[in-house]
Design goal:
The chain is an alpha/beta fold and 343 residues long. It contains 13 helices and 10 strands. The longest helix is centred in the C-terminal third of the chain and has 14 residues. The chain binds pyridoxal-5'-phosphate and iron/sulfur cluster.
Length: 343
Amino acid sequence: MAVDPSPPLWRQIQKKNFTDIQALADFLKLSEENRSRVLQKSPFPLNLPLRLAQKIERNCLEDPIFKQFLPIKEEIYTTFGSIEPVEDQRFRLTPKLLQKYDHRALLICSSACAMHCRYCFRQNFPYETKIQGFAQELAILQQDTTLSEVILSGGDPLSLSTASLGQLLLSLERINHLKRIRFHTRFPIGIPERIDKPFLDLLRSSSKQILFVIHCNHPKELDPDILSALKQVQRLGIPVLNQSVLLRGVNDDVTTLAALSEALVNSGILPYYLHAHDPVQGTEHFDVPDERGASLIASLQTKLSGYAVPKFVREIPGMASKTPISNHKELRLQSSCQSLPLE
Ligand SMILES: *Cc1c(COP(=O)(O)O)cnc(C)c1O
Ligand code: SF4
C-alpha cells in the first residue's frame, strides 16, 4: 500500500500560524480595552507564526513583536503614504522579475510569506499567481549577460517547496554569467525549522556563491534555535547578513539597535542595511524622521565595531542604488568635538 509522504515538519509548523485575530487575542490574553484597539479585519490579513506569538508579552500593545504583526486601528485613520511608495511596477521586466540596479535582478519567487509584517512595502503588490514556474524570467536572466547576481525575494523565497527551489537553482546553475544567488528571507525568524537537511543539501549542491540576507528588526525576534539554524547555513561558506527596517516604537532607540547588532555579530551575522521605513498607506504610526534615524546611526557608530553598524538607506524610486542617509549636522558636531584637543 502506498504511503502518502507526510509534509515536511516546517509545513506542519506553518499550519499553526495565527490567522484568526480572535484566537490570537485570546492567546495574548488581551483586555477588552486592548481588544478594542485591534482591527478585526484588514485587507492585509493577520499571519503570525506561533514561535513569534509566544514571544509577545501578554496583554501588551507596546511589545515590539505585537507592533510589527498585529493590525491596529491606526492603520485606517490615515491619509499618509501611497499603496506603492517604491514603485516596483515601473521596474517589472516580467510578472516575476524586477530590475532597478545594475548587475542584479530580483525574482519574486512566491507571493507567500512566513508572516505578515504590518509595515511591508510589498503588501499591495499585485503578485502573479496564475503562471507557474519562471520560464519568462529565466529567459531574460539567460539573455542579459550584464547580470551577475539574482536576488530571490518575494513574498519569501523559502515559502517555495524545497523541490521547486531545487528546480529553480538547477536552472540558474546553467546560466554561466550568473555568479551569485542571494536569498532575501524573513522565514527563519518565524519558522527556523525551514532550514532542514534537504534545504541545506540544496544550498550545498549549487556551484554559485550563495548569500543569505535575513530580515530581523528587534533582538526579541531571535532565539538559539534561529541562530543555530542560520549557523548551519554559515558553515556552508554562505555569508549571512541582516536587514532591518527602522520602525517607530519597535527599534527606534540606540539601546535596541545596539542589542540587535550585538546579538547578530555574536553569531557572525553582519548588519547590512537599516532601511528607512517606506511610506506605505496605513503605516504612518511606524514612521521615523530621517534625521532621527541618521543620529541613531551616528550614536551606534560610537558604541559598536565598525562592521556591526548597518548602512542607513532609503529606497528612492529611479535612483541607481539605495540612497544613503547621513546626518551632516551630527557629523560636523562630532568632528568639531574631536578636533578640540588638537587645537
Ligand atoms: C533593494 C533591491 C536590490 C538590492 O540592492 P542592494 O543594494 O544590492 O542590496 C535589488 N533589486 C531591487 C529591485 C531592490 O529593490
Ligand atoms: S516577510 Fe517581508 S515580504 Fe513578507 S510581509 Fe514581511 S516584510 Fe513583507
